[in-house]
C-alpha cells in the first residue's frame, strides 16, 4: 500500500531563492524557504496534501479566519548535525498539541500521518535550507485556519493546513528584561490559554507594546483574578530558581503545556536538580529578589530555547538577577541543545531523525 | 478640496449577481453583494480606499492574520424605507468602537472619513442589494486584519481594511433556548472581551457546540472566576426582566458595549420602563424563575435585533419563560425597528440617511 508521503504531489519551484540568503546573519522567522505544504479540509475530509512553491494564498473576503479568529499553529525546529543529518525534537508532541488546540477552537483534527509525513517530505526537500551556524535552526510553522465562508458567528465548514519553513537565528538578542503584568491578562479560566490559538497572541501585543515603551522585552503574565501568580510569558514558560530549587507553574487551561518546559523538568531530574511544579506568587519572587535567594529566572520555549532573564520589573521597580558562573540556565540549555543538534547521547529518545 | 469619497476609485463589476438572489428567502450573512471596499495600511499610512468587484484576497502564508489573530470587525445594517430611502443606525458609534477594538489589538485606527465615506460610497453603489422584506436588511461588515508578514509574535507592519455587504434575513429562526455556562469562559479581566476581536468569537465555538448538542442555541457567558454573574451571549447583550424592572449587566473590559443595548436603555427611559444596570447573579435569575418574578429574558444586538429567550438551562435543569401578551421585548423591538426603518419619529437622532 502507498503511504501518504508517496501520494503527496510535489511541484518544484523553478526559481530557488536560496542563493539570496545569508545563513550567517539570520533574524527570526522573516525569510521563508522555497516550498510549502498545503492541505485542504472540505466536506468533512482532509484532501491529499500538496507541496508547491512558497507563494500567496487566495481567500474569499468572508473566510472565517478574517472575522472569527479560527486559527491554530505550532512552532518546531529542524536541526542539522556535523554530518548533515537532520533532526526534529519530540515532533509527535507538537502533533498532539496541535490537535488539542484544534478541538478547543472547534476545528478538525489533523491525522498523524498528514502531520508527520507532510513534515518529513517537506523538510527532506528543503534540507539545504537548514542552517548549520551555531544558534540557528530551521523554524517550522505548521498552522491551520478557517477558509470556509460566511458572516454567521459559527465554525467554518472548510479549513486549510499548511507547513512553512523559515531558517532562523536567535529569538532574543541580548539581555532579556521582563515586566510582571498587573493590569492586563493573557487568558481566562475556562478560556483558550492552553491552546496555540491565534487570538491568544494578538491579545498580548498591546500590553507588550506598553511594556516595551518602558524598556521591557516581554510581559510575564499573571492570573486575571488578582495578578497574584506568575504564569508564563508571550511565547515561553517561566522558571524561577529559588535557592537551589527550580520552580515552574503547573500547566492549566490558562497556560500552554510547553515541550521545552517539560523537557527541562525531565533533564533536571536526571541531573539531580531539585524541581518543584507549583503555583508561584509574585510576592515570593519579589521577596526572594530582596533577600538574595532568587538566583535565576529564565524563559523556555522552542523559539527562545532557554533565555535567561536579566531583570524583572514590578510595580515601578526593577530587580536585577545575579550573573552566575555555572547557572542552571546555561547547564540545561547545553544539555537540551546537545540533544537537539545530536552532539550528545539522547537518553530520553526525544531526537527524531529525518 | 476633494473629499475622500471623491478620491475613491470605483471599478464596477461586469457581471452582477443580483438576479440570482431570492430577496424573500435570505439567510444570515451568506450571500455577498457585487462590490467591496478595500483599503491598505502600509508604511504607517492608510492608502486611498478602492471599491472593486467582490472577490478573493491574496495573502502571503506568513501574513500575521493566519498566525496571531490580529483581526477586528464591526456589524451594522442598512435599512430601506417605503420610499426607497436608505438609513444607517448610529454608524459613528460603530466607527468609534472599531477604533477601540483596534487599539486593544495593537492595530492602526481608521480615520472617520475612511470609515464613513467608504461606507456611504459603497452602500450608495449597492443600494439595489438592500432588501425591503420585513425583518431583512443589508448586513454591513467592516473588518480589518494583519496582512504584514513574519513568524515573530509581534504586531504586523501592514493591515487591510475592508467593507463587505450581505443582504440578510433573521439571525435566529424560532424560539431561542440558551444555556448558562458554568465551565468555559468568553473573556478574562484585563483581556480582550470588550473588543470585537476575531479570537473572542472562535473561543466560543467549542462550548457553543457542546451546548448545541444538548439542544441550546446559544451560551450565556458568566464571569470566569466563579461563574456567578450573567454577562452576555455570543453576539448579544442580555436583558432580564424581574417584575417590572429591566436589568442588564454593566459593561466592563469583559463585555462588549453593544449599541442595541444602550439604545434599549435610552428607549426604556423615554417609555418609563424602569431599568437597572447592575451585576446580575445566576442565583437571582434562577430564584426569580422559580418564584415567578422572572418575566422576560432577551438578547440584544445588531444581527439578532431583540431576540426573546424562551428557555434557559442551568445545571441540568431547564427553566421556561412565560409568554407575555405585551412584553417589553416586543414593545422595545417595535420602537427600535420603527426608528431603523424610518417608520416613526427618531427623537434621539440615531437615524443616518445615505
Ligand atoms: C504561550 C506559549 N507558552 C510557552 C511556549 C513554549 O512552548 P514550547 O516549549 O513547546 O515551544 C510557547 C511557544 O511555543 C508559547 O506560545
Ligand atoms: C459579543 C457581542 N456582544 C454584544 C453584541 C451586540 O452589540 P451591538 O448591539 O452593537 O450589535 C455583539 C454584536 O455586535 C457582540 O458580538
From TrEMBL, chains A, B:
Q: Which SUPFAM superfamilies match?
A: D-aminoacid aminotransferase-like PLP-dependent enzymes
Q: Does the keyword Transferase apply?
A: yes
Q: Which GO terms describe its molecular function?
A: branched-chain-amino-acid transaminase activity
Q: Which organism is it from?
A: Pricia mediterranea
Asked whether the UniProt record includes Transferase among its keywords, one would answer: yes
Describe the function of this protein: Acts on leucine, isoleucine and valine.
Q: Coiled-coil annotation: which residues?
A: none
Catalysed reaction(s) here are: L-leucine + 2-oxoglutarate = 4-methyl-2-oxopentanoate + L-glutamate; L-isoleucine + 2-oxoglutarate = (S)-3-methyl-2-oxopentanoate + L-glutamate; L-valine + 2-oxoglutarate = 3-methyl-2-oxobutanoate + L-glutamate
The coenzyme or cofactor needed here is: pyridoxal 5'-phosphate
Which CDD domains has this protein been placed in?
BCAT_beta_family (cd01557)
Q: Name one Pfam family in it.
A: Aminotran_4
User: Which PROSITE patterns does the entry link to?
Assistant: AA_TRANSFER_CLASS_4
Q: Which residues form the signal peptide?
A: none
Name this polypeptide is given: Branched-chain-amino-acid aminotransferase
What family is it from? Belongs to the class-IV pyridoxal-phosphate-dependent aminotransferase family.
Keyword entries, A-Z? Amino-acid biosynthesis, Aminotransferase, Branched-chain amino acid biosynthesis, Pyridoxal phosphate, Transferase
The EC number(s) this enzyme carries: 2.6.1.42
Q: In which pathway does it act?
A: Amino-acid biosynthesis; L-isoleucine biosynthesis; L-isoleucine from 2-oxobutanoate: step 4/4; Amino-acid biosynthesis; L-valine biosynthesis; L-valine from pyruvate: step 4/4; Amino-acid biosynthesis; L-leucine biosynthesis; L-leucine from 3-methyl-2-oxobutanoate: step 4/4
Amino acid at each position: 500500500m502507498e503511504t501518504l508521503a508517496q501520494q503527496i504531489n510535489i511541484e518544484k519551484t523553478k526559481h530557488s531563492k536560496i542563493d539570496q540568503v545569508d545563513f550567517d546573519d539570520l533574524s527570526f522567522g522573516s525569510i521563508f524557504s522555497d516550498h510549502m505544504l498545503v492541505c485542504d479540509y472540505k466536506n468533512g475530509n482532509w484532501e491529499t496534501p500538496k507541496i508547491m512553491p512558497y507563494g500567496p494564498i487566495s481567500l474569499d473576503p468572508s473566510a472565517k479566519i478574517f472575522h472569527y479568529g479560527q486559527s491554530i499553529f505550532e512552532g518546531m525546529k529542524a536541526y542539522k548535525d556535523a554530518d548533515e543529518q537532520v533532526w526534529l525534537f519530540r515532533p509527535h508532541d507538537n502533533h498532539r498539541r496541535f490537535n488539542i488546540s484544534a478541538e478547543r477552537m472547534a476545528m478538525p483534527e489533523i491525522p498523524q500521518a498528514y502531520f508527520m509525513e507532510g513534515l518529513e517530505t517537506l523538510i527532506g526537500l528543503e534540507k539545504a535550507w537548514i542552517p548549520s551556524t551555531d544558534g540557528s535552526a530551521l523554524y517550522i510553522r505548521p498552522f491551520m485556519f478557517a477558509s470556509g465562508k460566511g458572516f454567521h458567528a459559527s465554525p467554518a465548514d472548510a479549513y486549510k493546513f499548511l507547513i512553512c519553513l523559515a531558517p532562523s537565528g536567535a529569538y532574543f538578542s541580548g539581555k532579556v528584561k521582563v515586566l510582571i503584568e498587573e493590569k492586563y491578562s493573557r487568558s481566562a479560566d475556562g478560556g483558550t490559554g492552553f491552546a496555540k490559538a491565534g487570538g491568544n497572541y494578538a491579545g498580548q501585543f498591546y500590553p507588550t507594546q506598553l511594556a516595551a515603551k518602558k524598556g521591557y522585552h516581554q510581559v510575564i503574565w499573571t492570573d486575571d483574578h488578582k495578578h497574584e501568580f506568575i504564569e508564563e510569558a508571550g511565547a515561553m514558560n517561566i522558571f524561577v530558581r529559588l535557592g537551589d530549587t527550580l520552580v515552574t507553574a503547573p500547566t492549566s487551561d490558562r497556560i500552554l503545556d510547553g515541550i521545552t518546559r517539560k523537557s527541562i523538568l525531565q533533564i533536571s531530574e536526571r541531573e539531580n536538580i531539585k524541581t518543584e511544579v507549583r503555583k508561584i506568587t509574585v510576592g515570593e519572587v519579589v521577596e526572594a529578589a530582596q533577600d538574595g535567594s532568587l538566583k535565576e529566572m529564565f524563559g523556555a520555549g522552542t523559539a527562545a530555547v532557554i533565555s535567561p532573564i536579566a531583570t524583572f520589573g514590578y510595580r515601578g521597580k526593577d530587580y536585577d538577577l545575579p550573573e552566575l558562573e555555572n547557572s542552571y540556565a546555561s547547564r540545561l540549555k547545553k544539555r537540551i541543545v546537545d540533544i537537539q543538534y545530536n552532539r550528545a547521547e539522547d537518553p530520553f529518545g526525544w531526537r527524531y531523525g529525518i
